[in-house]
Amino acid sequence: MKHRLNLFFVISFLLPYSIWAQVLTPGTNSTFPGTQNPNDRNGFPNPATQTNQGKSKGPQKSGRAALDDSTKQVYGPNTIYFVHESDVVNSREIKRRIDTTLTLFQRYLFQEKSGFLTANLGNDGTAARQVFFQSPGTLGTQLGYSVYSPYAFQSDQVRYFNSKSPYSEVEYNLGGGGQTRLNFNFARNVDSLWNIGIALQRMVADKVLTDAAFKSGEQSLLGQWGLLLHTNYQSKNKKYRLLGHINYFDQGTNDQGGVKLSKVLTADEALKYIDNTAILSNSLSQSNDKFIKFHVYHEYVGWKGLQLFQAVDVENRTVKFRDKAFQQSLVDGFYPRTYIQYIQAPAEDSLYNENQWSSYSHQTGLKGIYKQFVYRTYLKQRFWSVYNPLNESKLDRFENYVGLWINQSFNQNIDFTAEGEYLLGSDYRIKASFQSPFFQVTAQRISYSPSVAQNWVYNTSYRWKNDFANISMDEISGALHLKSKYVYFKPGLTIQRISDWVYFDSLATPTQTKSDIGVFRTTVDLGGQWRKFSWFTKLYANTQTGPNLIRMPNLLIDANLALDVQYKKLLYVQFGIDIHHQSAYFADAYQPALQQYHLQNNYQVPAFVQLDPYVSLRINRVRLFFKMSHANYGLLNNNYYTAYLHPAMSRVFGYGVKWLLFD
């Protein structure tokens, strides 16, 4: 109840602020045109209906064109655009528009947004993992405590706006189990060349298992804050450009460990109940992941074929875990051992794990464009260090990288891209891809360093200092693109060979295998639209060879069926149902002391089907949805586990609203 009151306070603060920001812009018109065309972005203003767009009026500001804020300007989704940093880095002029459609708007949970290709511990905001193996996005040593990182703002997804008018987004979602999310975004142009903005997110969730705190009325499972400050600037002559942001994230979780079993209550029997007891029933286990990142990218265009660029990154992060009932959890078998030798347990009973991480890097290089050929080459230097206060020890390393990226466009729809990056004396990545309207193919080879968590841990129950060899992977993937007027069909295939894989065994201890692991995954993306009906089905069929050390389901299906209805050009309604299926497999267990998923051989998580009917609505600039998640709970099956002994949410009702303000 406390966190819901906090959210109510935040919403009460942000909504008037957003409206106040619009009021302070003199002479703007916040209404939509009286008559809307169904082809103009689902009822949003069409650029053809806007007048005096892009004209300056009045005196100039610091030599820059002032914005036209006259009443003739009609602001909307077609007067605002944003870019990602990758667009600028790769010299691509892409003006991305705000999404105003109802397509999959009802998918508000993180695993739903990923197409169910991620899994958690049954509640939004809990430790996340990929369902299928994916290669890492970056080279070099990483900290390895990353189960909460997907919920933070991602640097490659930061939106750098050119908003002309003040722009605001307010989104609020509430689901069963206290799954509550608030997102607020605000951006505005200081002038025609400079934009600043802020993004705020708050997520909370309640416990689904019973423990001591739950019995006393404290239901909070987790609380999360995210704050993003961003800015972008381009000089009047377009020779210089700057993108930058500050990213803050703070996640706190009261870990429960999963369902507590007994001789009477088996894993299958536990799925029949919603009031199960937690393994860590004393409510004395807590995790925290907090970081702040600073990033800036800037470039200078001397000539089109010769440009200078640089990216600078600074990160400070602290990851903690404490279990003040360590001895009891040790007796219950949740932890494998203790390294403390004593006759009687001390009064201050605790398992404590902490890592303080710092990273500094810069990437400096040249890039350019010649006709339809684009290149980028660079030198990158990175220094990282990690400190463990428990034994007052420290690891650090200085890394040097070189890289090359090239792209050749043959026409608007056909291009070839190749890239390579090398960490001197260690990691490397070589990748090439070809894309056309009818097919695409990608091949890559990568060798990357094990993480700090895999090589070095020191606490009461887990201790190791390893020197694992690099993990390497070969991957080739391809897909065909076939479509007719009403149907599209995209079959695909991914083949991966993984060598020297480092995994956490059934005792959550890291081990490296010398045997190769082969992954063969067939995908089918099938969908279409007919009259007012639209639908899609994505199927993943996965098989493996070699040791069974990367546990993945053999079959995963994600589907949607929707019916769109329009009422008097004012109300847009979509009725639909989401369908998700996953086959049985030995899903990983989770150890919160290490923030690591690890193997378990005790229980095969059963197959399941989940049905989520919903209705979404849009009235002018406001979109809403109402959804019944897991509506088939207790009908086709009982519940299911998202991870070993972590049950999914039972049948729950959720709703959400998103409001866009353009002036």
UniProtKB/TrEMBL annotation:
Residues annotated as signal peptide: 1-21
Region (Disordered) residue spans: 31-69
Ranges annotated as biased composition (Polar residues): 31-40
Keywords assigned by UniProt, alphabetized: Signal
Top-level taxon of the source organism: Bacteria
TM regions (residue ranges): none
Protein name (record): Porin
